[in-house]
Design goal:
There is one protein chain. The protein is elongated, with a radius of gyration of 19 Å. The chain starts with a strand and ends with a helix. Helix content is 29%, strand content 28%. The chain contains six helices and nine strands, in the order βββαββααβαββαβα. A hairpin with a 5-residue loop joins strand 7 and strand 8. It has 228 residues and is α+β, with helices and mostly antiparallel strands. About 6% of the residues have low confidence.
C-alpha cells in the first residue's frame, strides 16, 4: 500500500471536506514532521488519464481556501513505510515552498489565437496569428503591467492557445491585478488575452527529489485549470 500525495497545506478551513481521490478512495490529511500532507491510500497509482487528472485536481482545488496550499503534480506516491522519511528528507524545501505560496494563488493568462491554429488560414477579416516574438513581447507587456516578481511563461504549439503566462498573486490583490492587465487585453491585436483563475499554484511548485511511482509522464493539468 502506498500513500498518494495531493498537496501540502497549512490552515485548512475547519469545514474542509475533500472529494474522493484518484482511485475513488478517501482522502485526508496526515501530519508528518510538522507538515500537513493531503493524501489517500492506493494499491497502485491509476493510469494517468483525463479523468484521473481531473480527480487529482479536484482534491487539490478543494483546499484552495487554506492559508497556504502547495499542490503536487499527478502521480506522486510513496510506500507507506517510507512516507515519514520522504517528508523529512524534503521538509526544508516543502516548508520554504509552502511559505512562498502562503496567501497567494495562481492566475493564468491565456493568449488565444484569433486567426485559428498554426497553419490555418485566418478567417476573413481576422488579424493574422501572432509570431513567437510578438507573443513574447505581449507576455513581457503583461508582466510589466502586472508588476509581480513571480511569473512563468508557457508556450503552446497546439490548438488556439498560443501561450500562457502564470502569475503568483496575493489573494487580496486579485482585483487590482486584473485591472492592471486589462489595458493589455483591450489593445491586443490578433490574439485574445484571457485571464483565468484563481488556481492552486501548480506552476510554482518545486521539483521533488523522488520520481513518482508511475512509469507514464504525468498529464499536463494546465488545460484542466484553464477550463473554468
Amino acid at each position: 500500500m502506498s500513500a498518494y500525495l495531493y498537496a501540502i497545506v497549512d490552515g485548512l478551513p475547519p469545514g474542509w471536506r475533500p472529494p474522493t481521490g484518484v482511485d475513488g478512495g478517501a482522502v485526508a490529511t496526515r501530519l508528518l514532521d510538522g507538515l500537513a500532507v493531503v493524501a489517500g491510500a492506493v494499491d497502485r497509482v491509476p493510469e494517468a488519464t483525463p479523468k484521473t487528472a481531473a480527480l487529482h485536481h479536484d482534491v487539490v482545488a478543494s483546499a484552495l481556501d487554506a492559508a497556504a496550499l502547495l499542490p503536487l503534480r499527478y502521480g506522486v506516491a510513496v510506500p507507506d513505510g517510507e512516507l515519514a522519511g520522504w517528508v523529512a528528507a524534503q521538509a526544508g524545501l516543502l516548508r520554504a515552498s509552502l511559505d512562498r505560496v502562503r496567501n497567494r494563488v495562481e492566475m493564468s493568462v491565456k493568449l488565444l489565437r484569433l486567426g485559428g491554429a498554426p497553419g490555418r488560414r485566418p478567417a476573413r477579416g481576422a488579424a493574422p496569428p501572432l509570431e513567437e516574438r510578438e507573443l513574447r513581447a505581449l507576455a513581457e507587456h503583461l508582466v510589466e503591467r502586472a508588476g509581480l516578481a513571480e511569473w512563468r511563461w508557457r508556450p503552446s504549439g497546439t490548438g488556439n492557445v498560443a501561450a500562457s503566462v502564470a502569475f503568483l498573486v496575493e489573494r487580496g490583490d486579485l482585483g487590482d491585478f486584473l485591472a492592471r492587465i486589462a489595458p493589455v487585453a483591450t489593445r491586443a491585436s490578433g490574439v485574445a488575452v484571457v485571464p483565468t483563475g484563481p488556481w492552486p499554484a501548480y506552476s510554482f511548485a518545486p521539483p521533488l527529489e523522488r520520481r513518482p511511482l508511475v512509469a507514464a509522464d504525468p498529464p499536463d493539468l494546465t488545460d484542466r485549470r484553464q477550463a473554468g
